[in-house]
Amino acid sequence: MNKPSLQVMNYIALVQSSVIAIDEVPAYLKADVEKWLAFFKNGKVGGEDNGLAN
Questions:
Q1: Could you please report the per-residue DSSP string of the chain?
Q2: Which of 6, 20, 30, 52 is placed for a possible disulfide with 24 were both Cys, Cβ 3.0 to 4.6 Å?
Q3: Residues facing 48 on adjacent strands
Q4: What is the superkingdom listed in this entry's lineage (predicted)?
């Protein structure tokens, strides 16, 4: 799994802190931001378990 870019991380921080809504993320980054938000929330990407303890 690749690491998120700095731009993606910046949007993740903005969404997590309720500064912007996910709908305000540019279309070309939205899929990556949603993927990483899900990963940071539950530790899984695409429904796959990464083997880490919760």
A1: -PPPPHHHHHHHHHHHTTSS-GGGS-HHHHHHHHHHHHHHHHSEETTEE-S---
A2: 20
A3: 45
A4: Bacteria
pLDDT of residue 13: 95
Nearest partner of 28 among 3, 51, 5, judged by Cα: 5
Backbone angles phi, psi at 29, to 5 degrees: -110, -15
Contact 15, 21 (CB under 8 A): yes
Burial (CB count <10 Å: 0-12, 13-18, 19+), residue 34 = middle
